[in-house]
Amino acid sequence: MLKSLDKERDFSMTGNESIVRIDASRLQTLQSRPPFQQYCVELWERRFFIWADARFKALRTTKDYQLWRTWLVLQPLLDVAFYAFLFGFILKTSRGVDNFAGFLILGVVFMRMLVGLMNNGSALIRGSKGMIKTFQFPKATIPLAQTFRALLDNILPAIIAIFMALAMQAFSRLSWTIAAVIPLFLLIHVFGCGLMLITARLTAMVPDSKAVLSFIGRAWFFLSGVMFSIDRFVNHPELHQIMTANPGHIFLTAVRDSVIYATPVSFGSWLALIAWSFGTFLFGLVYFWGAEAKYVRVV
């Protein structure tokens, strides 16, 4: 497993008197952990590999189906139809919500992105054991490549969701504010990458945590105001404040305001989303880097 040596070694070639001298002074152990600044430099040096890996794997899951392009559209539509029937028709959560269909479509599609990014970290390290045990490289390239793959996968569902949400109100509120979806879409993936880095290390060290994370993901999805308006709890100030502070809800509110309500995202919301996104990413990267030397032993 060790790749580093303190001096050169001589290796005799069988049946040949020549000697090959190998300088092993630059080789490193697979269990090494460089300083954080150097670690970030090594990640940057591998940016082309990260992007190439993401592009190669993007949409591969759906391509396993014969009509994979159709399922890219049908999958989110089926989910929206089910939730619309359950929450809108049976539980009547649509009351008081303007353009509930558009409200629901955007909520389901964009919240699925966040939960999906978090869940993608589960077993990510153990699933890459072949590469981890063979090569010396910053292991954060694995969740980073997975994040870019998810970003590419999510472009089409996001476009379809926006188009359908606007179509539900006959494009009557089409406004310049829709341009805010682009930075919001990118921030969602920065935030999600931070979550993935955290869950990747957590599930690598404690495999049983996957069950807990699965529950947390479902709870987060349903408690972020995907199928109902958080304003129904306005008469319970403490509960309302907790639910509106949820970053998932802040993201959904910003997307809905920009697309179907033609309302600019407030400066305070931008600050909150930027802080959540880059703060979570930085924390996740440091947390993931902290176990860099251990990943080769747990896979």
Put the structure in a nutshell.
The protein is an all-alpha fold and 299 residues long. The chain has helices at residues 36-45, 47-57, 68-90, 100-120, 129-134, 141-167, 181-205, 209-222, 237-244, 247-259, 267-289, 295-298; strands spanning 9-12, 19-22.
SSE topology:
Layout: E1 9-12, E2 19-22, H1 36-45, H2 47-57, H3 68-90, H4 100-120, H5 129-134, H6 141-167, H7 181-205, H8 209-222, H9 237-244, H10 247-259, H11 267-289, H12 295-298
Antiparallel strand pairs: 1-2
Helix pairs in contact: 2-6, 3-4, 4-6, 4-7, 4-8, 4-10, 6-7, 7-11, 10-11
Structure description:
It is a single chain. The chain has one domain (33-298). The chain is an all-alpha fold and 299 residues long. The chain has helices spanning 36-45, 47-57, 68-90, 100-120, 129-134, 141-167, 181-205, 209-222, 237-244, 247-259, 267-289, 295-298; strands spanning 9-12, 19-22. The chain is elongated, with a radius of gyration of 23 Å. It is built from 12 helices and 2 strands. 31% of the residues are buried. The chain has a two-stranded antiparallel sheet with strand order 1-2. β1 (9-12) and β2 (19-22) form a beta hairpin. The longest helix is centred in the middle third of the chain and has 27 residues, at 141-167.
